[in-house]
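Let us work through a complete example step by step.
Step 1: write down the sequence.
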Amino acid sequence: MKKKFKAKPQGRKPFGQPGANGNGNGSQGSNRRGVRGVMNQKTPDAQIYSAPMDHSYRSLQQQGGAGGGGYDAAPVLDSEASRPIFIFVDDLFFMAKIQETARKLNVKVQFVKSDKEVFDLVGDGDKPSLIVLDLNHHTVKPLVTIPKLKAKFKKETNIIGFLSHLQGELKMKAQEAGCDMVLPRSAFSQNLPQLLRRHAASEAELQEY
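Step 2: predict the structure and record it as tokens.
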């Protein structure tokens, strides 16, 4: 006798087809991926604060290759003819980086600890071309010091502050206090050669490059 053919039950579909269970292309795998996608999204009420990005430093990058070793090929500046550059930094490692960059460019920089020290060093001489402040300095109060420096040197001195890119409130306060530019620490470090070269060069040297 011939065996009767029994139809397969329709309750389940082969693995990998729509509607199948598992991690293939079935609806359950799709649903799991959808749930994971929603969980990974940052919702408005996650209370994650990110400060507005400061893109003012991009103009520095457009005027020449920023960072890296590109500044070694720049013309050597006349350090005797340049105006003073003062820097408020208490991080020894970052201080060493600034010193090494300035040495390669033949730029003189002076590390200071107070606005009074700056005024004493300048005396009746040339006003500084640049003053840099770490806005997270441990002993100097940058938001108190900046207005004093700005009142003394006016627009003849450019004041630049740097901080963490998440410190949006501090950035705004520094700008209100008189900072001409506020950069994230990483951007300041990357553009350090261009900043030193620009502010240390005399007018004649600036026309050469």
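Step 3: interpret the result. Residues 14-28, 38-57, 61-76, 203-209 have pLDDT under 50 and may be disordered.
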